[in-house]
Known about the structure:
mainly beta, 8-stranded antiparallel barrel
Amino acid sequence: xxxxxxxxxxxxxxxxxxxxxxxxxxxISGTAIVAPFASGNAVQLHSTTGFAGALVSYRxxxxxxxxxxxxxxxxxxxxxFVTNTLNNSVHDRFQEISxxxxxxxxxxxxxxxxxxxxxxxxISPIDDAKTNTFGISRxxxxxxxxGAGIAYEISPSFDIRAEFRGLVMKTPTxxxxxxxxxxxxxxxxxxxxxxxxxxx
Length: 200
């Protein structure tokens, strides 16, 4: 009788536990994009650091340790191209849309994680005083992203998340006439982020 009662009650007791399991989270973070110096094809590219950025991420756990993540990032910086005949500056909007696989580890309230995936970048010139180049247009660049970070759980629903991300892409050209801003090299943008995540 006791065994039959246990078999009947176990699914009812287990259901609330599964219902409370958080398999999804959404986070918002402040970002900085730090592009390295790049040189190639007689073009030197110097970039300022973009501090006015934000990253929004949605993560869905497939297993207790592995999940999928979608990201959107917005930032701005200034690209400075130097050649023997040109000295051009372009103030731009930097947008990232990416998807990654995330693997996390559980250490009490700390949850380190690593991730990697494909990314698309939209780099659009802004026509203002910081841009001295005309006849240019937006670049759409396919690349990759990777990262490692740590989340600290402050409650069952919230955690603070810090991460170092890398964004790999070909340097932009802004479709400048004659391809005179083309370096033909890939570079790795450093992208530190810190923010807060809500689990549901």
